[in-house]
Model the fold of this input.
Amino acid sequence: MRRGRISIPDLVRICTEAQKVVNKQAEVIKGKKTIHPGPSANAIQQECTLELIGIGKGSTVLEFDLAKPQMHLSFSEHFGAKVVTEVAGTIRSLSKGKAESIDPGLLLSLYGFSGLVEQKGITGMRWITPQCNGYKPASVKITKTVHDRAAQRLSRPQKVIVQIDGILDMADFKPGDLKCRIDPPIGTSIMCFFERDREGQILQLLTKPVRARGMATLKPYTDRIDSIHIDEITPLPSLHLGEGNFFANPSIVELASVQKVKPLDDISVLAGGIPDDEDVDELIDRIYAARK
Done:
């Protein structure tokens, strides 16, 4: 582009797509779902949100930095630096055609980001990371080849393990074509397939809130679910049932079992829940005072 200059529409597009890639790479490293509605987890937003700190000379260099210092928790690694470095490695492996498996959500973000190349005003891009916190510097060219290879992978049926909650409102027990439909709280209905040994369970759960888990097939070039093959389906308590259970006084172990809550492996998921300027002790005192 012109020396040290960039149009605002191009700037907005590049910044938006770059942030999407960083967020998805962070979700991959954290082992979180990359196929989901809505924004990324709060902890990832705090650690990996980028700020544009300068537009350099040459063919327009956009300089980014992490928006905030690392969170005040004792991490064993500088997570934000690791994420941007991993993005460079993912782009490089995709460019060389050596990437055996790339997470579908991350692949879709890379497809959108690399699609900016060779559009009007943008003839090429590089992802440049400096030496930081022990990570080596990198400079990876984002080419049309990267975009084409991402597109080729996205054109194939993408498979990913997912979990959805919703109302099981339809089932078809036709031999050889067993299927049902789940309506999630957000988004369109999802067609699900199941094996014959689940017929009785599906019939019993009709019109009830459920949680289904299984292998999902994604629609080409999107992160939208086309269908799911159910491996596990369990009932969920409705709001009405929740009212009845409120006074049942279950133990912590029973609550954890019903809600399928497991011990935390990473304390960082709790970060960001309380603002930095909030006194935790005062907050707890107010909570107990309100219960009296």
Notes: Residues 8-155 form one domain.
